[in-house]
Amino acid sequence: MRITGVKSFLVNPGDRVDWGSGFGANWHFVKVYTDEGLDGLGEVFHSVDEPAEAALRKFERWLIGKDPTKIIHNWQAIYRGLRYPLGTATLSALSAVEQALWDIAGKACGLPICRMLGGPCRDRIQVYASAGLLSGKPLVEAALDVVSEGYGALKFTPQPPDYASKSAERVFVESVERVRSVREAVGDEIAVCLDYHGRSFSPAEAVRFAEAVGPFHPLFLEEPAPTENPRALAEIRSKTNVPVAGGERCISRQSFREILETRAVDIFQPEPLACGGILETVKWAATAELHHIMIAPHQACSPVSLLVCAHIDACIPNFLIQECNVRLDSPSARDMIVGLPEIAGGYLQVPSKPGLGIELNEESLADYPYRPFDRPVMVMQDGSIGLE
Fold first, then answer.
1. 246 phi and psi, to 5 degrees?
2. What is the rounded distance in angstroms from the CA atom of residue 359 to the CA atom of residue 219?
3. pLDDT tens digits for 25-79?
4. Do β-strands 267-268 and 244-246 pair in parallel, antiparallel, or remain unpaired?
5. Largest CA distance in the chain
6. How far apart are CA 337 and CA 306, in angstroms?
7. Structural domains in the chain?
8. Which of 107, 163, 185, 7 is nearest to 358 (CA)?
9. Is 83 left (phi over 0), alpha (psi -120 to 50) or beta?
10. Which run of H or of E encompasses 9?
């Protein structure tokens, strides 16, 4: 079996936002085709869709004519062949190709990817409702909605949506109040996760916030400092009893090693669409296990990315919980992707179909044309640029 081509599909599911073009993030699917009729599906992280497209064209020249089941060999050829360290866009493109190669290999063997990686450690995967499931309504109402749908865990950003226009003290007071109101509304049995979003360069400010919300026992506080500075995270972690999480923007082995060496987090949140793909994430999870660090993968793109995470979650012993930032029952998801599972009682069943277990409905993609998307730039009260 040989690779015959690599193709990108840039689509927009139609979500609306209050900035930029008015459209939310695109989904960037990648398919790898072979001469035996098997094809594989992967996904690029959405915020690097355009530069990743150029990288895919370059990678295709190497891949055509190669054996798609030699996943590590092909990955290494691209990773090392560029000579200089890969950036986010090139690593995300490589991640998408790697996912697609695993999909092909699984279909060729008649096995789901997680069984090719050693078999599942669990029968089902707990997921938590994240921003994509909590938007469009007032925070408490949205939180109660996802709890009524059966989710036993949820995550939200404690800062108010208009935080950039407010003083630091006002933001602090309102953030603590948002956490309190959600905890009181959902009760003590629901896991509440907080995404601080790395919005402060001050560890002292983050420690103060952690102390204030500690009585509401969050499952974790995500990125109380930017993950690019593991020593700041480690400082915060040493001064609070709230578990510290982070890692979605950690894309290199070197930065991951520094996170481990500084013991910066209790919970590591890799992004498989940006850090090198499925096997690279499993390797990182195994290394984290040696340091007694739990894994809670980041998920912010289409349902394809959630299925990618599910295969990883199934086979790593130190898995904690999986982010779910997309509705699997949305019309756009059901139109574009065939074979999507359901989330029941806050859990996703371990994938059991060959490969990823889903297929792209290419005929439907024309109904969801690509729309330019840029993340918002946060202009603070004093006119400076903040962290979104």
1. 170, 170
2. 34
3. 999 999 999 999 999 999 999 989 889 999 999 999 999 999 999 999 999 999 9
4. parallel
5. 62
6. 12
7. 3-111 (3.30.390.10), 115-354 (3.20.20.120)
8. 107
9. left
10. strand 3-11
